[in-house]
Amino acid sequence: MERIGFLSFGHWGPGQGSRTRTAADALLQGIELAVAAEELGVDGAFFRVHHFARQQASPFPLLSAIAARTSRLEIGTGVIDMRYENPLYMAEEAAAADLISGGRLQLGISRGSPEPARDGASVFGYLPQPGETDADMARRHTAAFRLAITGAGVAQADPRYAGGATGLLPVQPQSPGLADRIWWGAGSRKTAVWAAELGMNLMSSTLLTEDTGVPFHELQSEQIQLFREAWAAAGHARPPRVSVSRSVLPIVDDEDNYYFADSALRDGRDQVGVIDGFTARFGKSYVGAPDLLAEQLAADTAVQAADTLLLTVPNQLGVEYNAKLLGAVVEHVAPALGWRRR
Q1: CA–CA separation, 56 vs 178, rounded Å?
Q2: What are phi and psi of 282, to 5 degrees?
Q3: I need a surface site. Which of 73, 215, 229, 270 has the fewest CB within 10 A?
Q4: Measured between alpha carbons, how far apart are the two ends of the chain, in Å?
């Protein structure tokens, strides 16, 4: 385990006990938590992107603001739904955020998950072409985005206004190295292999849209192994990166016990359900005393197979509480997984 980051879904709303009541609260607290995380030695700040919901929806202003307030922290998404994206505009936004950060952007993308809006991407102006599925459209957008961030020409130059230039013009700005820091949020073993073949890093969440009857961490570690084998077979020059997400909630005082004691009983095992028409296996939460969590995570084969662990945080409990949570993980849990502060 080389890196540990936090993953925030950016929830906001006026519910009972919420300390993140407005969209402004969610954005500003996201910045402050990232700053606190860097001071604690945490390696990354990642944000879920979700449309038509009271969550983070437009990540690049937030990531740029964090980049301007930090110097070491990786900044990223987990994940952007590519069904909704204009690939060339996204290439411009991503490059700008990466340049502001000095090359710290780690951009997680995917074909998307169920959204509150029916056919929400069509409202944004994006429809599958004849014979395409939504997943096909997301992959088409991904291909165009990845091509654009490599500096490939995408628009015919007009010599009258391009200083006499001819041929195809790339989008600007460009940020060298960004193309190597794109991650695919794979929900199955098959899509993990596909991502490896294309040279994208693997971002695996707390659910997989398949179930073989084995514990979640074993199914996910099999996914990671297949990804690494496909990466090696493809002959990519650089080593890949792999992240997994986990809900890790150390109980160290009465406040933690108040919030999460019930979760230790309710969420301490895998769950199987249906999502987007697929049978899915959801990973368990890790809740309890820090020494117990260290022991349990050390036995999690997928955590051990990954180089990066993303900790999902209860962001509506506010910056102070979540900084305390991250501090407890960094001090009492992460070292037992082989992590060392950089």
Answers
A1: 22
A2: -105, 135
A3: 229
A4: 12
Which residue type does 113 have?
S
Using an 8 Å Cβ cutoff, are 55 and 84 in contact? Answer: no
- Is residue 1's pLDDT more than 90? no
Q: 105-110 and 74-81 as β-strands: parallel, antiparallel, unpaired?
A: parallel
**241, 202 in Cβ contact below 8 A?**
yes
The span from the CA of 266 to the CA of 285, in Å, is 9
Q: State yes or no: pLDDT of 309 exceeds 70.
A: yes
Residue written as tokens 């909630």? 249
Confidence check: pLDDT of 294 > 90: yes
The whole-angstrom separation of Cα 226 and Cα 74 is 26
Chain position carrying tokens 């994006």: 126
Give yes or no for residue 268 having a pLDDT over 80: no
Helix, strand, coil percentages, rounded to 5, for the chain: 45, 20, 35
**How confident is the model over 47-84, as pLDDT tens digits?**
999 999 999 999 999 999 999 999 999 999 999 999 99
- Side-chain-side CA neighbours of residue 323 (13 Å): 16
Helix, strand, or coil (residue 124): coil
Residue 195: other Cβ atoms inside 10 A = 25
Whole-angstrom distance, CA of residue 45 vs CA of residue 219: 26
- Separation CA 185–CA 98 (nearest Å): 20
Q: Is the peptide bond before 287 cis (omega within 30 degrees of 0)?
A: no
- Residues 44 and 25: their CA atoms lie apart, in Å, by 20
Contact 282, 288 (CB under 8 A): no
Closest CA to 98 of 88, 106, 89, 90: 106
Per-residue pLDDT of 123-133, as tens digits, reads 999 999 999 99
